[in-house]
Design brief:
Blueprint: H1 23-44, H2 52-63, H3 68-79, E1 87-94, E2 100-107, H4 110-124, E3 127-129, E4 138-146, H5 151-160, E5 167-171, E6 174-179, H6 184-194, E7 202-209, H7 217-232, E8 236-241
Antiparallel strand pairs: 1-2, 1-3, 2-8, 4-6, 4-7, 5-6
């Protein structure tokens, strides 16, 4: 699969890139990380050395400056046997003039999650699609970006690790690898073998629109209002969309 990297490059749409705007937004971000950490640790164990998904999540949390006491409390809940149950649900949305979005929620109350999404849709006069009606126009990829290697050295590192990447590009001295989601941790480990203690500029699994569109006027206002309402919803974890903002 060959990607049109000009359509997104480093500007791939992930909700956490823009959520830290207000104190309330930060609190929402920290709360979502607490849920994710608890959920991942409950399923795979609270020791990051034995739970690679947890290790990756803790790395991202620290990068986004999630307070250590929030991380500790989430792990302590697992170790003390607190029983909470979270589900990941995904909603596919049609916005104005060909715009689309995928909303991913992590929730302990699916009825609340879908109610909040429907409220935003109704107020913005947008519609929810059935499963697959939007997502077929998106690529599910992992994105790993870093400095310190050339594209050739990066390809060599991934080949030596037995990995097949989907595409690679360089922007502002940052090498960006696009790969299969299941290879995410292996890609990061392959690069770390070349540059120990590397700090990744990007490390995310995301849904990237195959084609982007531009909105203007009232359509853009509606879409921005929709995004704001969805971001503020309690259970929203990620929002992916096809609009150039």
């Amino acid at each position: 699969m060959k990607l049109n990297l000009q359509l997104f490059g480093r500007a791939y749409e992930v909700r956490k890139a823009s959520i830290q705007k207000t104190g309330a937004a930060k609190a929402k971000l920290y709360s979502m990380y607490a849920r994710e950490i608890y959920d991942v640790a409950k399923k795979g164990g609270a020791d990051p050395d034995g739970n690679l998904s947890l290790r990756r999540l803790l790395e991202r949390a620290k990068k986004e400056q999630v307070p250590g006491d929030i991380i500790k409390r989430a792990l302590d809940k697992v170790n003390s046997g607190v029983d909470e149950s979270y589900s990941t649900v995904r909603y596919e949305i049609f916005g104005p003039s060909g715009s689309t979005a995928i909303v991913e929620c992590l929730t302990d109350n699916v009825n609340r999650a879908i109610s909040n999404v429907k409220t935003a849709l109704n107020k913005c006069k947008c519609k929810m699609g059935v499963e697959g009606s939007v997502s077929f126009n998106y690529d599910h990829l992992c994105i790993v970006g870093f400095k310190g290697l050339s594209e050739e050295e990066t390809l060599e590192a991934t080949i030596d690790a037995g990995l097949e990447i989907i595409d690679i590009e360089t922007e502002d001295d940052v090498v960006i690898i696009y790969g299969n989601p299941q290879d995410f941790i292996a890609i990061k480990e392959a690069i770390t073998q070349k540059i120990p203690n590397i700090e990744f500029e990007m490390d995310e699994i995301a849904m990237l629109a195959k084609e982007k569109i531009t909105l203007s006027g009232e359509d853009l206002e509606i879409f921005n209002r929709l995004l704001s309402m969805l971001e503020e919803a309690e259970d929203t974890k990620n929002i992916y969309h096809n609009v150039i903002l």
